[in-house]
């Protein structure tokens, strides 16, 4: 986004950018690429680590990788919201989808109308907890949120869900016959 010199122009530009589904879709792509890059680096370091050696910092990025994927999922959900004709920004003010969203992916999907299986609900709930805590901070906000479960099958669930959202966005575009 370029620097705005006139407040009215700035508000209009912010509103248009915030309501353009492509911006959210592209940001999701960048976040997923960052997560994948970090994952490859971690795997490379893990595979080259000598038995008994102290693990380098790169080995401690699993929660960051997952958090970045979670932020990408959130961006894709918002892209679907926008493709469905809704707004995220009005008159230069971010309104969001829900009041106090706090990266809660399951309620966002429910509000947007994205159906979820019980497995997707469980994985997205765990992903939200990671986004709110160990992905960014050394501890969660409350002691009751300390237990976080994430398994390799959750990675697969999220990957399949991302593909489904991308397909929804692409088919919606093809169905309308234009790039909007």
Termini gap: 19 Å
Poorly predicted tracts of residues: none
Number of helices: 6
- Alpha-beta classification: mainly alpha
Helix-strand sequence: HHHEEHHH
Number of strands: 2
Q: Identify the strand order in the major beta sheet.
A: 1-2
Shape: globular
Characterize the main sheet. 2 strands, antiparallel
Rg, Cα atoms, Å: 18 Å
Count of discrete domains? 1
Residues in β-strands, percent: under 5%
- Summarize model confidence as the mean pLDDT: 89
- Can you give the helix content as a percent range? 55-70%
What does the secondary structure layout of this molecule look like, with pairings?
Blueprint: H1 7-18, H2 21-48, H3 62-83, E1 89-90, E2 93-94, H4 105-112, H5 118-132, H6 152-176
Antiparallel strand pairs: 1-2
Keywords, separated by commas or semicolons:
single chain, 180 residues, mainly alpha, two-stranded antiparallel sheet
Walk me through what this model shows.
The protein is an all-alpha fold. It has one domain. The protein is 61% helix and 2% strand. Helix 3 crosses helix 5 and helix 3 runs parallel beside helix 6. The longest helix has 28 residues. The radius of gyration is 18 Å and the shape is globular.
